[in-house]
Structures are given as structure tokens and as C-alpha cells.
Specification:
heterotrimer, A mainly beta, B alpha/beta, C mainly alpha, B: two-stranded antiparallel sheet, 12 helices, 33% helix, C: mainly alpha, two-stranded antiparallel sheet, 27 helices, 54% helix
């Protein structure tokens, strides 16, 4: 049996592009992926093919920021504020919800049972949609629209716990809210203030925010990612950080503050099914992938990668990682 | 004081003449009467300028020259405005409704891509020369539009953020310290405007007179610009003290304060409006710091939202008070930002094709001058530089851009010889 | 006398009296050449300033404060024929001279508002190190030497921005501002091209920060892009256009790089300096700048700056535009002084002494003729704004009880002087550093007019303050005379006396306030604000 693990992480394919690939979803049981681009299109592609072909899904008019692969459809969300249900074969639009959010859609998530699609946008609302019918099921409204410094807030990401009971949402001012999936009630709130830098003196604006959130496999913890406090907020000049909270108590159980090898934003966190380690990806001008040991609470490995990684899709057995990022689509293997 | 001022003016400025465009021959003629009458006219009309200095380089692509659908366009879309055929960024919905007051210039190519050099160019309107110290726009406006005996300051600048403050040049150069700005940094009002209780008003005045008399004796036979500036500075004290109330926004009705909003930029713009209303000919409100090398879209989401609101509120406010037709509102930076987006989702410095706007006095609102190519990488037509922009600004408030000062016996035109105004944006 | 000097002098057709005695005095050469030029352009010089003026001016320029009333009396009443020279030498020997020169050098060499080089400069000046030695220490100082370690701050403060380091070095040490030539050939000066800018930057491109130290690699090229879009490799080139061939080098492979990185991290951890490479590009710059013909950039630049500091106007203006299209007002004089500098170990004090002993330096700043001559002829002394340090000292000393500085115990009196002088540093932060087109801001006038803290300190009615002393004097005439002497360092004129006594007379009902206001008017008068 082949060994799989962080220490075997290596690049196996790199495809250069003119655009920025922001979102990626792995087509189960196939080698291909869907990627959402800054050129407003979605593409399905088999990256490992000799001459990978990018098949277009045309319909959005701005950055594609959400991509979930449901049983029946591919569902996407965009800065154009709309959600689109696509027929995966014909690549045609089945349903479009214009003005799905009042402001820019930042991210999406598919509930573990595949029945609900979640979307978050800068209207600060997390919306739950029936995956098949597209009907709006519920709205989670609580994140404040204006920051304490009187600027617009942003709602960056959402996740559902593997047991399907809880939803987490994370925002610009580093607040994490936990909601009950069934009732939509806000259960608790905690924060990771180091992920948000407000500069009142030098540049008088902010940077940062929690960009990524993921529940642990046992649903008891939630990990959030962002960037540490920054001195010069013109640049992403601080190490990417990951903080882990116990959901029930709201207590922070650990933080990985990062170091100069991982300067930039943690754009996404993926737990290994065992719950023993996780993978955090991101970057600034270029990127990195790091593996963090949750038992020993230390860094396993850090790798420089040639692009700022925006999102990854990982096969169930963790053997292959598909990465969407700035100007590239990269495939990594974790197999010996 | 009057005696000394006219003495130093004669020394350093000679007589100024008004020459028509390109009329080099008339440069040497001294048309004193005409220039005095002309200046008087201008001053009576009370033109003013409010410069919103967007320090650090605001992105033209996220404001006034969006490129929707292009890879360089970023995630924000373009929206229709009140002017048919003109679109601006969706980050500016309020300005979109009010664009009839505003002219957008999209075709600036100023070639200097560093903060210091770019700022200097966009404050002076021209490159430096080693042996001549040019005045900045504010000093020129203070001189041409201000009143000698004015009780209000004639040149005020706000710059609270520490980043880039040193680049925001405010110096009168050869015009003399009379036109130096009141530079507000830590506070929204100048410090030391109030007389101490330990001295009566009479003594405060006469103490200053004594100082002046003693200094006047010293100044005899010792001509120097810097020496002159010392006495000019003291000469302005009493006048400035009486303008203290202008800087106090709590004197505005709460509804107005709320309309502008709670941010520092909003508050300073409101103070600027008060100063303008009281007759200050030039106020600069700096909003720093736009230099989004990383996270350009997040930063502009934040700051353009604020700019949109503050600028709209300001234009509405000026209009309601009947001031907009006499006030020129400018948005300007040291350069724009690259169409190419870097890995941190940032944009870098870009002086090759960027935008500025002019609203109000003397401006043909609702116009767009110049254009950039589909990706915003180059100017497509109507390329202009700092000289043309400055010439247009001066013309908008009724100052002849080809007006000449004299430094010693050397004529120094207000803008470089041969520069043409952008007549398409002038009313 | 050195051969080089005689050659220059004979070429000028000039044989000063002092040469007969075997020693050319800087002051004689300067005066002769300045006078000759003035004759040529038909300009009459201003008369010599009086003793009060000369004492105040020299004291401010050399030690950064005004003279005390006792010092004024001593100087003015002395009948020694060489009293001026004695006074200068006495000032030059005082610790205050060293501090003041170091302060001015720090203003020049450190980024704005920073005084990290101050302590190095004080020590270097005290030890009378040559400017070339200081240059070496500041650019490539030996970290094993405690003094040179501090000097390296010059580079350390700028190492994160090598363009800045290049511009600063070129401007401050060679009198050449080439920053414009970075993006394109210099718009105004044909001689400075991009190749020059990047040529100079090449001397620095291998520098990096490692913990508390500056390190230099043994490899690394500097690339740049021309306005035509061409990518070029920069070659080390000095401002004169002289390029430097360097031995072949190779970039280390990944293994070596890793090892190097590890080594550097360890050095930083251990707080140890990075060893200087076998071949140092910085050393090449020092070599070319200080040896051979090209060293005229270095010597002329420091001469020009010291001249500017003394006279308030340079032989070349602006100070950082020393290029062929901008010649000196007195080229032969500049040549002579540069050669003298170079021949005498770049001794700053030697030149300063020579300059302040010239006739030109002793001229009045007042010109009653029709047109004031242009500054470039040095026919009239310049009115120079005081630096923050000088102005603070002038205020503090002026506002002190003059008897504080008088004592039979000379040590005690000096201690008092030193104490007040030290306090000037704190007050100095309230004032702007004069720049080229300096104009006093209205903020300063408002500060003096309405600031409580300032008034409280300077104008307190206390025994150690001037006000305290004035309040116990019997007549208004005495009050006026004492105040004037203390603050303006000279006797009051009849006209001034009249005006001031009238002011006091009208305020009999509020005597203390009147005296305070009088002192205020004197302290804030233009005469105190400037060196003249």
C-alpha cells in the first residue's frame, strides 16, 4: 500500500494561465476538476491530461468565488451577486438567482449530506439554499455590516460541521459565529483579533480578516485562518496564522502563529480525516502550503509553491491535491 | 507690516503681468493697473479650491475608469451614471448619481512612478529646477484668490496619517512665506490659536507691536526671504486667532455632522467646507493611504466607499449653500495603479494612464476627457500631463494659466510655456 | 608648503604674504581670491562687523549657543591684537564645539528625525578623525571596532532601500544627486545617465541586513531596465564614468545557498557580524573615491558643505548639484581648498578654523548700498536661520539670569553653562530644521504667542531666570540694558531704549507683566531667530 503523507508532498503538474483561479472543486471519481476564474468563467479540466482542455461554463460577469459540486448540478457564486445552477454535462445554466446577495458573494460550502448549498457575501448574510430546487431555505443574519471603525465589513467564508449540526461564518473583523444548522439560531461567537489589523495612525484603514474556516472531523473544533498583525498594511507582510477553537466552550485550544516561510493569508484549511493534522494553504505574491500537527502542536512541513494558493480540492484519500491560484493550476501528490 | 510686505514683494516678484496665451512679446510690459484690477475682480468673485488629495495612488480602475470584463478589471463591475454613456465603478453609486457636476480626466500620463517624485509633480504641476523653487498649487491659489487683509487663513491642509506626509509638498517657494500653508497633522484645528489668560487682549496686541518694531530695525539692510518669513509669520497671528471657530465642527448642526459621517476624512472635509464657506481660497484634505500593493480590492472597497460618500455629501452640501459654482473640487493622487494584478491581489504604481476629476466652479460637469485602452494599460487618446491638468485647474477658477511671475528679472510662467488647457472640461 | 599648493597658487599668480613665512594660511587664500573676484565684477564688500556681532556669530557657528553677557564683556573690552584668533581657538577646544559639529553632521547624515549616528560622530570629531576615515567607517566599518560599529548605522538605516542608500551616499559624500537618473537619463544634466545611477548602486547591491549588522555577499548582479525596455546588467561605475572590472564570480548552488543561509541565521542569533567578503564592492567604491583623480568629488563636496555651513551659501549651489554644467562661483578657490583638505588628512576642524578667520566671515550682514550683491560673491554676510538646537540655546541662555554664568569658581560657571546648553536638546524638538527654501511657519509664531508651557519655562519670575533678575533692578534703563545684553548680546541702542522704556512706563500698574512682555518681544525678535 502506498504511503500518503505531508512529507511526500510534491508538485506533479503545473499549468500556467493568464487569469486568477479562485475556486476549485474536485469531480468525485474522476480526475477532473472545476475551477472558478477571475475571468468570470468556470472551467472543467483534466489537469493531468497531456494537453489539458478547459471547457467553459459561461454566465457570470465577475470573479467566481464559490463552486460546489452537488449530485445533480454544479452551483457557483460570484462577485456579480448571483448564484448559478449548471448542468454539468451541457455546461448550460439551469437556474440563475440574480441578486442572491445584496453585495459581493465571497464563498460557498456544501453541507455534508449534499442537500444544502451555503453562500456568504458582503451583505453579511449567510444563506442556505436547497441544493436541488435552489429555494432559499434560511438566512443567518447577525454579523455587523459596519466595522467599529465605520467601514464596510466583509463575510469571507462559511463551513458546516461534518456531523451536519453546526455552521460557522467568519468575517473581516475576525469574528467567528457558530449557528445551529436546523434552526438557524446563533449558538455562540468568539474571535481571533490578531487576524484583523486596523491602522489608525499610518494609513488609516484595515487589512486582514479571517479568510478560511473548517471544522475538525469530529465536529468538536473549528480552525480559522488569516494573517497575523501587520505593520505596513500596504502588503501582506505577516505570517499566515491558524487558530483552533473548541466549539462548545469557545476556548482557543491552539494557535499556529506561522513564521517567515509562510508570509501571507491562510486562504483555506483542510483537516486530514484522522483529525491529527491539517493542511493550510495561501500566500502573498507567491504561495505556500503547510502541514500542521494538531497533537504535537507543531509544524510538520512547509513548502514554497509558485503561486498564491486560493483554494485546493483534495481527493478523499488525500493522495492528490488540486490547487487553484494566481495564474496557475497545480496538481500535487502526497504519495510516496 | 504693510510697508515691509510691499517691499519684499517688489524685491522678489517684480511686477506681475498678464499675458495672453503664447503672447511672449507682452511678457516684458508692465501692466500694473490691469493686473491689479484683474486680481481684484477675481478676489471679489471669491473663487475657492478644495483639493481631495488621495495620497498613495488611488486605483483608477476601482473608481473612475473601470474595465469590466477584462482580466485587468478586477472583481468590481461598472455602473451606469446620471450621464448617459458614462460608467464608473460600482463602488461609487452615490457619485454615479451626481456625475453631472463632475468632469473626469482619464488620460493622465505623468511618467513618475515613485511617491516622492510623483507627489511633488502633482503638487507643483511641474518638475523641479535646481535653482528655482516653485510654489505648489495651494500657494498659488492663496496668492491669486486670497485677500491680503484676510481674517481667515488662505491655505489650509489636513494630513493626519503619517504615511506619505512628507511628500505632500506645501511650500510657497518664490512666492514667499505669506502663502505657506497651515499644516494640520495631529489635530483638526491649529494649535495655539487661543490667547492665554495671563495676558490681556490689549497687551497681546501691543506686545506683538513691540516685537515688530524691534525686528524692523534689525531687518534694515538685511534682505533675505527667510528673514522676511519670520515677520510675516508673526504678522498673521492675530488674524488666524480670530478664525479659530471655523475649525470647530461641533458648531455645525448634528444633522450635518451625521450626514458627512464619523470618519476622520469626513470630519476634515466638513471643516474644509466651513473654511471654504468663510472664504478660505484653498483647502486640501488628504486621505492617505491608498498604496494597495497587496489586497487592492479589499482596500478600495473600504476606502472608495468612504470617498464616494464623503465626496457626494460635500458636493450636495456645497450646492445647497450656493457655493458649488464658485468652488472647484479636485480629486487627485500622485499616480494611479497597475491594471495588472499581482499575486497578493494588489496593484502597483502606475503613472502611464490614470484619472483625476474636477467638479464645480468653471467645470463642464458630466464630461469625460480622454480614454485608455480596453485593459487600461495605455492612454488611447487625449493624453495629458501635470502641466495640462494644472493649466485647466487655474483656468477653471479664472486664473490665466499663462500668467507670469517675476523672480528677480526672470519671468516665470505659471505653467510651462506652450501648455494648453483641456477646454473640453471647462464650462 | 606642499608642492601641489604652490603650483596652484603660482598658477593663480598669487603670492600671499604668509607664503613668505613658509605656511599658507587658508584664510589668506580665501580672502585674496574672493576679493579678486569682487574687484572683477565691481562689487564693494560690506564693512567689517563689530565685535558684538563677530562674537555672537562665531560662538553660534562654532559651539551652537549665544555668548553670555560676561563673555561679551570680556571679548569686547579685550585689547589684544589677536583676540579674534584667541576667541576662535578657545571655542574650538571646547567640548561644546565637538557636540555642535557632531549635531550638524548628524542632521546631514541621518535620515530625518533620527539621531542614531550622533554618538559616533561626537567621538569621531573629538578624536579629530579625518572625513575620509569617517567615510570609510560609515560605509565599511570594522565591526570589531566599537566606534566603527556605530558608524555603520549610516548604512544600516538605509540598507532596506538600496536606492535610498545610493542617493544618500552620492548626495552627501560626493555632492551629486542622481536620483532622477534612476528611471531615465537625467532630464537636466546630460552627464548623468541611468548607467551612472545603476553604476553607483552596484557598489551597494550585495548588501543585506543580518540581525544587528550589515553583510555583503560575494556574488550578485544588479539588473535594470532602460527606457527602451532593454534589460541590462549594471557595471560598477563611479560618477566620473570610470567603470570597474571585477573578477569573475559565480552564484552559489542550492546546497551552498542553504549552508550560507544557515550560517547567517546562526550569526544573527549569536549577535555576530557577517564577515566581509574577499572581494567587496563597497571597498571598490572607497578605493576609487579616495584615491587618484576621482577623489576630487569627495574633497570638493565636503569643502562645499563646510563652506555652506560657515557662510550660509556654498561655492556650488545647490549643494547636491556639483556637476560640470553647474560650476563653482570660484573654481580655483574650490580646487585649492579641496587639495588642502586632501593634503591634510581631511581634517574638518582645520578648514573650519581657516574659514572663520577670514575677513569675509567677519563682514557685516547689513548692506546699505543700492542693490545687495548676489550671495555668490560673499561680499556681505548672510542671515542664516538658526538650527533648532541653536535657537533653543539662544532662548534658554537669553532668558537666564546672567549672573548665573558668572562665578569666581570657573568650574562652577562652566558647569552652569553646560547644564543650560544640555537643556537645549529638549526645547529644540519644537522647531523645524531649516531646509533650502526655509520659511518660518506661522505655527512657530503661534507657539510663541499662545503656548503656555513655553512661556512658563522661559518667562518665569525666578531667581535663576532673567525675569527674576530684572524685577530686582531699580530703574527701567537698567532693565532694558540688562535684557538686551543678555538676549541680543549687545548694548541697546538709543532708539530701542526709548521704545522699550515707553512700553514699561505705560504699564506701571502691572509691572511684572510688562517686564515679561518686554522680554518676550526681545526673545521673539528676528535678531534672535537668526545668525547675522
Amino acid at each position: 500500500m502506498a504511503e500518503i503523507g505531508p512529507k511526500f508532498f510534491k508538485e506533479v503538474k503545473q499549468i500556467s494561465r493568464d487569469d486568477i483561479l479562485l475556486r476549485i472543486s474536485h469531480q468525485k471519481s474522476m480526475q477532473s476538476v472545476y475551477v472558478g476564474s477571475s475571468d468570470a468563467k468556470i472551467y472543467s479540466v483534466d489537469p493531468m491530461a497531456d494537453k489539458p482542455e478547459f471547457h467553459e461554463f459561461k454566465g457570470h460577469t465577475s470573479y467566481v468565488m464559490g463552486l460546489v459540486d452537488t449530485e445533480k448540478h454544479l452551483v457557483s457564486g460570484s462577485y456579480d451577486r448571483s448564484l448559478i445552477w449548471w448542468d454539468k454535462e451541457s455546461r448550460e445554466i439551469v437556474r440563475r438567482v440574480e441578486d442572491a446577495h445584496d453585495r459581493w458573494i465571497r464563498n460557498m460550502f456544501l453541507s455534508p449530506d449534499g442537500q444544502t448549498v451555503l453562500s456568504v457575501g458582503d451583505d453579511m448574510v449567510c444563506k442556505l439554499w436547497d441544493a436541488e430546487s435552489g429555494e432559499l431555505v434560511r438566512e443567518l443574519v447577525s454579523h455587523q455590516k459596519i466595522t467599529p471603525n465605520h467601514f464596510p465589513n466583509m463575510l469571507y467564508a462559511t463551513a458546516v460541521s461534518p456531523d451536519g449540526n453546526l455552521i460557522a461564518t467568519v468575517d473581516r473583523i475576525a469574528k467567528i459565529k457558530i449557528w445551529d444548522f436546523k434552526t438557524g439560531e446563533e449558538v455562540t461567537e468568539f474571535e481571533a483579533p490578531k487576524c484583523y489589523t486596523w491602522d489608525p495612525k499610518k494609513r488609516i484603514h484595515s487589512i486582514g480578516g479571517i479568510r478560511s474556516v473548517c471544522f475538525s472531523p469530529d465536529s468538536k473544533s473549528v480552525a480559522v485562518g488569516g494573517i497575523g498583525p501587520i505593520g505596513n498594511i500596504d502588503h501582506l507582510e505577516s505570517p499566515g496564522r491558524v487558530e483552533i477553537f473548541n466549539v462548545a466552550s469557545g476556548e482557543k485550544t491552539h494557535e499556529f502563529e506561522g513564521d517567515k516561510k509562510v508570509i501571507g493569508l491562510v486562504e483555506q484549511i483542510v483537516f486530514h480525516p484522522s483529525g491529527k493534522w491539517l493542511m493550510a494553504v495561501g500566500g502573498k505574491h507567491t504561495g505556500w502550503v503547510q502541514f500542521l500537527d494538531l497533537e504535537k502542536k507543531e509544524v510538520i512541513r512547509q513548502f514554497d509553491v509558485p503561486m498564491h494558493v486560493h483554494q485546493v480540492a483534495v481527493t478523499d484519500d488525500f493522495s492528490t491535491v488540486y490547487g487553484a491560484g494566481h495564474g496557475k493550476l497545480i496538481v500535487w501528490s502526497m504519495v510516496n | 507690516m504693510t510697508l515691509q510686505k510691499s517691499f519684499s514683494r517688489r524685491r522678489f516678484l517684480g511686477q506681475s503681468t498678464l499675458a495672453g496665451a503664447g503672447a511672449a512679446a507682452s511678457v516684458m510690459s508692465l501692466d500694473i493697473l490691469k493686473s491689479e484690477a484683474f486680481s481684484k475682480q477675481l478676489k471679489q468673485k471669491g473663487k475657492r479650491v478644495l483639493l481631495l488629495w488621495l495620497a498613495g495612488g488611488v486605483s483608477q480602475l476601482e473608481t473612475f475608469d473601470p474595465k469590466p470584463g477584462r482580466l485587468t478589471g478586477g472583481p468590481f463591475q461598472a455602473i451606469q451614471t446620471a450621464v448617459p454613456g458614462v460608467e464608473i465603478s460600482e463602488l461609487m453609486p452615490k457619485m454615479a448619481m451626481r456625475l453631472k457636476h463632475t468632469a473626469i480626466i482619464r488620460s493622465l500620463n505623468t511618467k513618475i512612478g515613485d511617491h516622492g517624485g510623483g507627489s511633488r509633480l502633482m503638487h507643483l504641476g511641474r518638475r523641479d529646477e535646481p535653482n528655482l523653487s516653485y510654489p505648489d498649487m495651494g500657494s498659488v491659489m492663496a496668492r491669486e484668490l486670497g485677500r491680503l487683509d484676510s481674517k481667515v487663513p488662505d491655505y489650509v491642509t489636513f494630513y493626519t496619517a503619517t504615511e506619505g506626509r512628507g511628500n505632500a509638498v506645501g511650500h510657497p517657494g518664490f512666492l514667499g512665506s505669506r502663502y505657506a500653508p497651515m499644516f494640520l497633522t495631529t489635530d483638526n484645528k491649529p494649535q495655539n490659536l487661543r490667547r492665554l489668560e495671563t495676558i490681556s487682549d490689549l497687551d497681546h496686541r501691543e506686545r506683538a507691536d513691540l516685537r515688530r518694531v524691534l525686528s524692523a530695525r534689525f531687518s534694515q539692510g538685511r534682505v533675505s526671504p527667510v528673514l522676511g518669513s519670520h515677520n510675516v509669520a508673526y504678522g498673521r497671528v492675530r488674524g488666524l486667532m480670530s478664525s479659530e471657530a471655523l475649525f470647530d465642527i461641533t458648531r455645525e448642526p448634528k444633522s450635518i455632522q451625521d450626514k458627512y459621517g464619523p470618519t476622520l476624512f469626513a470630519q476634515q472635509t466638513l471643516v474644509a467646507r466651513r473654511l471654504i464657506e468663510a472664504g478660505t481660497p484653498f483647502v486640501k484634505v488628504s486621505r492617505a493611504w491608498w498604496d494597495s500593493h497587496g489586497q487592492n480590492f479589499e482596500t478600495h472597497l473600504e476606502m472608495v466607499t468612504e470617498l464616494d460618500h464623503v465626496m457626494s455629501t460635500l458636493l450636495d452640501d456645497l450646492q445647497e449653500r450656493g457655493l458649488l459654482e464658485d468652488t472647484l473640487v479636485i480629486t487627485l493622487s500622485e499616480f494611479g495603479r497597475t491594471p495588472t494584478i499581482n499575486g497578493s491581489l494588489g496593484r502597483d504604481h502606475f503613472a502611464r494612464a490614470w484619472s483625476a476629476t474636477l467638479s464645480g466652479c468653471g467645470i463642464r460637469g458630466g464630461t469625460v476627457f480622454g480614454s485608455t485602452d480596453e485593459d487600461g494599460q495605455h492612454v488611447k487618446d487625449g493624453e495629458v500631463g501635470a502641466a495640462e491638468l494644472f493649466a485647466t485647474i487655474y483656468a477653471a477658477v479664472g486664473i490665466d494659466p499663462h500668467h507670469e511671475y517675476y523672480v528677480g528679472s526672470r519671468p516665470v510662467p505659471l505653467v510651462d510655456v506652450g501648455t494648453e488647457v483641456i477646454s473640453e472640461v471647462l464650462a | 608648503m606642499r608642492l601641489s599648493q604652490s603650483i596652484i597658487l603660482l598658477a593663480l599668480g598669487f603670492v600671499p604674504l604668509s607664503m613668505v613665512h613658509g605656511e599658507t594660511l587658508i584664510q589668506d587664500v580665501v580672502d585674496s581670491l574672493l576679493d579678486a573676484k569682487m574687484q572683477q565684477v565691481n562689487i564693494t564688500a560690506a564693512p567689517v562687523a563689530d565685535d558684538y556681532n563677530i562674537l555672537r556669530r562665531t560662538t553660534l557657528d562654532l559651539i551652537g549657543r549665544i555668548p553670555t553677557s560676561a563673555e561679551v564683556d570680556r571679548y569686547v573690552t579685550s585689547e589684544d591684537s589677536d583676540k579674534r584668533e584667541q576667541m576662535v581657538d578657545q571655542l574650538l577646544q571646547s567640548p561644546a564645539y565637538q557636540k555642535h559639529l557632531a549635531y550638524d553632521l548628524n542632521l546631514l547624515l541621518s535620515p530625518a528625525g533620527n539621531n542614531e549616528l550622533q554618538s559616533y560622530l561626537e567621538l569621531a570629531v573629538t578624536q579629530r578623525r579625518g572625513w575620509d576615515q569617517m567615510f570609510r567607517a560609515m560605509l565599511l566599518g570594522d565591526y570589531e571596532d566599537e566606534l566603527e560599529r556605530q558608524a555603520m548605522k549610516f548604512v544600516k538605516l538605509r540598507v532596506k532601500d538600496l536606492d535610498n542608500l545610493t542617493n544618500a551616499t552620492s548626495s552627501l559624500f560626493f555632492g551629486v544627486n542622481i536620483s532622477c537618473a534612476k528611471c531615465h537619463d537625467h532630464p537636466l544634466v546630460i552627464e548623468w545617465t541611468q548607467a551612472h545611477f545603476y553604476g553607483m548602486k552596484s557598489f551597494f547591491n550585495r548588501l543585506f541586513e543580518n540581525g544587528d549588522f550589515v553583510g555583503e555577499r560575494e556574488y550578485g548582479a544588479l539588473k535594470y531596465q532602460t527606457t527602451d525596455g532593454e534589460q541590462l546588467d549594471a557595471q560598477m561605475m563611479f560618477l566620473s564614468g570610470k567603470a570597474i572590472e571585477e573578477p569573475q564570480w559565480t552564484s552559489p548552488d542550492a546546497e551552498k545557498q542553504k549552508a550560507e543561509k544557515k550560517q547567517l541565521e546562526q550569526l544573527a542569533k549569536d549577535k555576530q557580524p557577517v564577515p566581509v567578503p574577499q572581494y567587496s564592492r563597497r571597498a571598490q567604491l572607497l578605493d576609487i573615491a579616495l584615491r587618484g583623480d576621482d577623489r576630487s568629488y569627495f574633497s570638493k563636496s565636503i569643502v562645499n558643505r563646510l563652506w555652506y555651513r560657515t557662510f550660509g551659501y556654498g561655492l556650488v549651489m545647490p549643494l547636491d548639484q556639483m556637476h560640470p554644467s553647474n560650476p563653482a562661483s570660484h573654481p580655483k578657490l574650490l580646487d585649492f581648498l579641496a587639495q588642502d583638505m586632501s593634503d591634510h588628512g581631511y581634517d574638518l576642524t582645520r578648514l573650519i578654523r581657516g574659514l572663520v578667520l577670514t575677513q569675509a566671515y567677519a563682514r557685516s550682514s547689513r548692506y546699505d548700498g543700492e542693490t545687495r550683491p548676489p550671495q555668490m560673491w560673499f561680499a556681505v554676510a548672510n542671515v542664516k536661520p538658526l538650527t533648532p538646537q541653536q535657537y533653543a540655546a539662544a532662548l534658554l541662555f537669553g532668558a537666564r539670569n546672567p549672573s548665573q554664568f558668572v562665578s569666581e569658581d570657573v568650574v562652577k560657571a562652566q558647569a552652569e553653562i553646560d547644564s543650560v546648553h544640555a537643556q537645549a536638546r529638549t526645547l529644540a524638538v519644537k522647531f523645524d530644521v531649516p531646509s533650502d527654501e526655509f520659511q518660518v511657519s506661522v505655527d512657530e509664531a503661534l507657539l510663541f504667542s499662545n503656548d503656555a508651557a513655553l512661556e512658563k519655562d522661559l518667562l518665569a519670575n525666578r531667581e535663576d531666570r532673567l525675569i527674576g533678575e530684572l524685577m530686582i533692578l531699580s530703574t527701567d534703563a537698567e532693565v532694558v540694558a540688562t535684557a538686551s545684553k543678555s538676549i541680543m548680546n549687545r548694548p541697546v541702542t538709543k532708539q530701542e531704549q526709548r521704545v522699550m522704556m515707553k512700553y514699561l512706563k505705560h504699564r506701571k500698574d502691572r509691572r511684572e507683566a510688562a517686564v515679561i512682555q518686554l522680554v518676550w518681544a526681545l526673545l521673539t525678535s528676528s535678531e534672535v531667530r537668526f545668525n547675522y
